[in-house]
Every structure is written in C-alpha cells, then in structure tokens.
Amino acid sequence: MQNNTYVHKSAKLYGASSVGKESVVLENVILGYPQHRTLMEITKAGIDIEDYEQPGAVIGDNAFIRAGTTVFSNVIAGNNFRTGHNAMIRENTTIGNNVLIGTNVIIDGTVTIGNNVSIQGNVYIPTHVTIEDKVFIGPCAVLANDKYPIRGEYHPQGPVIRKGASIGANATLVPGVEIGEGAMVAAGALVTKDVPAWKLAIGCPAKIVDLPQKLESLNNI
C-alpha cells in the first residue's frame, strides 16, 4: 500500500490489486475479486484464490471505500474515488477521477465512467454503458441493456449518458437510448427514446420538453 493508506484487517485484496496514497479501505471490502471464468480456472487448478496471479483492481489516491464494497478484477478507478456501503463494481470497468458510487449500487461490468460523476444509492447500471463527465444519477435509477429480455439473441446495448446530464430518482432508461449533453431526466420518468442536449424528459413514457433556463448549466460536481 502507498503512504498513509489504511486498510482494515478484514479487507481482502486479490491478485495485483493496489490502492493509492492517503486512502481508506474499511471492513469487509474486497478488491480484485475474480470474474466467473477465472474462478472456474482456480477451482480446476485446485489452488487458493489468494495464490492465483491476476490483474486485480487498481484504485487511485485519496480513495474512501466503505464497508462491504466489492470491486472485481480488471477495474481501474482514478483519484478521489468514494463508495457508500455494499457497492458492487464488476470486471472491465473504468472509472475516472472524483467519482462517487453510492450505497448498494450495482455496476455490472464493461462500463466506462468519466470524471466528476455522482451515482446515488441503489442505482443499477448494466453492462455496455457509457457515462461521461459531470453526470449525476439519482437514487434508485435503473438503466437497462437488453431490449427483449430472455427472448431471441442477446446483444447488450446500454444507455449513453453525455457530459453534464442529470438522471432523476427512480428514472428508467431503456436499452440504447442516449441522454444528450446537459439534458435532464425527471424523477420517475421512463425514457424510451433519445433525449436531445439541454432538454428535459418528463413523464411515463417520457415526453421531451424545453429545459428551464435556470437549469442550463453543467452539473457542479
């Protein structure tokens, strides 16, 4: 570990996992947990998970990772990374600087998150999602990536959330929609089509209306 970093004795760091300086890793945190394919290889080889060489998770400086959080292997997070309790971040996810992942958030892997992003508690983010800089996602929002679940071939395509967009609490974004730069999605909205930049999506299903002038500025995150 780097200088002045505290890792609770109950935390587990697998593979080549690392945490930058001035960081805090609290109770029962797991960093670098292997994905399913790797776990099967470990089981067949009959070795302990602690002895298996793998990339692990790489966390930058000034992190604060709260109790119960699990970060899988092949995750990279930048500086000032923070989580609530019991967050889960799966493999092949890249996270920028100054990002908050709230309590009970699930990021299901193969996700790209930019800088200065705030994702509040109980949000679900599936695979193949892109979240650009200065995005806010309110509590209990749900993003989807499979247009016809369990029917036909599976071609996951998650939403794209552009720079400075805001997603309200309990909103739902269907697969493949794009939320434009600076756009807002109201609480409880069901977004079934793209939202243009600097517009407001409101209702169920959502309608696109003009964004109030007082809200025409990027999020201050």
From TrEMBL:
<protein>
    <submittedName>
        <fullName>Acetyltransferase (Isoleucine patch superfamily)</fullName>
    </submittedName>
</protein>
<keyword id="KW-0808">Transferase</keyword>
<dbReference type="InterPro" id="IPR011004">
    <property type="entry name" value="Trimer_LpxA-like_sf"/>
</dbReference>
<dbReference type="GO" id="GO:0016740">
    <property type="term" value="F:transferase activity"/>
</dbReference>
<dbReference type="InterPro" id="IPR050179">
    <property type="entry name" value="Trans_hexapeptide_repeat"/>
</dbReference>
<dbReference type="InterPro" id="IPR018357">
    <property type="entry name" value="Hexapep_transf_CS"/>
</dbReference>
<dbReference type="InterPro" id="IPR001451">
    <property type="entry name" value="Hexapep"/>
</dbReference>
<dbReference type="Pfam" id="PF00132">
    <property type="entry name" value="Hexapep"/>
</dbReference>
